[in-house]
Amino acid sequence: MKPSFPIAPSRRSLIKGAGGATLSAVAISLLAGCESMAADKPMAANPGGDVDILNSALGLEYQAIAAYQVGAESGLLQKPVLDLAVQFQGDHKQHAALLSSTIAKLGGTAVAAKKPADYHFPVETLKTQADVLRFAAGLEKGAASAYLGAVPLFANKDLAKAAASILGDETMHWAVLRNALGENPVPMSFIA
Amino acid sequence: MKPRFPSDPHVFAASLVLALLAAASPAAAQTAATGAVIKMMDTFEFDPSAVTIHAGEAVEWHNASRFKHTVTADPKLGGAVLPAGAQPFASSELLPGGSFRQVFAVPGKYRYFCTPHEGIGMTGTVTVLPNEPKS
Question: Which among B52, B113, B60 has a CA at the least distance from the CA of B88?
């Protein structure tokens, strides 16, 4: 399945919305991974709490990276679905790198990825490409829900905005995976 | 203020029975021994994820995280598994600091999950052993 639209939007299009509104300098630097810009700005008023939330998110990104690795190595994914999975894994790697560097900027310690076996993925239930897609879709939906819960918790609004940006990406992944399964890609008006 | 009772004694009796029945389940939940306590974590995990209790005991879940979670054991809502004869159950959305308590009467293995976070592995099991015969 090859989507007819670019799955990963350019940073320019991400940063500048349809209404022409732009993200703040700190959010842009966070999203772009620009060390110097982010370091120059004051960060969270509640850095300890924000670090903990970022670490929760980072743990999920590591889980997603490991899950897509399982999917890619399963031998069940055929091109172009395999390419899509690798691309989504790449997105999660970018999220993880951004979260990890932001935690470091805030003076925190980033959590480490678990060993693949410690995620207890249901590998015994993955028998077909559809099984892998459904597993990945569930994971993306869960991640989107987790980011939805995280966004209002950040003391630093720029971090909330950056998390919302990742939330949007997870939701796009979920929709595309549902579409690949032949399901309604947008089954609801709101996510929970 | 004077309490207002139904004037018909049959209606009153029926109301009383219904009220007692309604109160029975929460009372049982309160008096059942707590067989296990499970925390809901910021890492989107139940801790511990697997517990074993005896029939008639309760399990308590405490949301120790910053996120909202649920305890859901309903096959219609996700990948829950219940032993034969057990009724599905589900908490409401638990805010940080919130808790939920469930008494397990039917022995067997229960698989439950957090509704929004099932996909990222927030699942757990409760194994309920038959009651030990009292000596």
Answer: B113
Q: What is the ipTM of this complex?
A: 0.72
Does A150 sit within 8 Å of B42, measured CB to CB? no
Q: A51 to chain B: which residues are within 8 Å by CB?
A: none
The yes-or-no verdict on residue A41 having pLDDT over 60 is no
**3-state SS, residue B126:** strand
Task: Tell me the HSE value of B35 on the side-chain side, using a 13 A CA sphere.
Answer: 22
Q: In Å, how far from its chain's centre is CA B101?
A: 5
Question: For A45-180, CATH number?
Answer: 1.20.1260.10
- Chain B contact set for A141 (CB, 8 A): 119
Q: Which residue of B has its CA nearest to A134?
A: B119
The two tokens of residue B45 are 């995990």
Q: Strand, helix or coil at A26?
A: helix
What is the pLDDT of chain A when averaged over all its residues? 82
Mean pLDDT by 10 residues, chain B (135 residues): 48 43 50 95 96 97 96 96 97 97 97 96 97 68
The token duo for B112 is 């439950």
Q: What is the pLDDT of residue B27?
A: 56
User: What are the sequence ranges of the domains in chain B?
Assistant: 33-129
B79 touches chain A (CB under 8 A): no
CATH number of B33-129: 2.60.40.420
Where along chain A do its domains lie?
45-180
Q: What is the pLDDT of residue B4?
A: 47
